[in-house]
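User: Fold this; tokens only.

Assistant: Input:
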Amino acid sequence: MRQRRLDYWLISDNLQENIESTDITSIKFDHSAIVLNFSQISEQKRGPSYWKLNSSLTTNSEYASLITCKYPEWLSEADDTSNKRVVWNFIKFRIQEATKAYGKQKANVCKSKIKNIERKLKISEEENDKCPSESTTANLEVIRLEYENLIDYITQGNIARSRITWLIISNVFVNC
């Protein structure tokens, strides 16, 4: 099996001076993403925005047990309040806090998984380019499939957040 790699990108001379590093990451079998890190683009601070419950967490047993375990504790914190509306708002506030923390922790785990798989994929691609064999090709395919499954999971989350109902994939309409 013979493989060839044709990856090019064109960039203006003005931006070329600001490029700190470049990388190529495989997303699908026959496509690669080019990652450019710029040195002078500073990240803007994000302030608090509108929060919305990720309803997929409600099917997560770990999240459900977290909320179930914390609920009596939160009720005891609001014990001195006799107004039920205040107690309800306090409980909602605590659920929001716990959910945000759980979601951030889960997102960090997902990001580290992606970085780990991308690193494995890059190593496997280089190994397969240097000395292609059935075992290196099979290993590369396994890692690509794992990476694609993770990307598909992230894509499903993006689709849900965007609230789209139809998606066009290769000129085929898919009902989301």
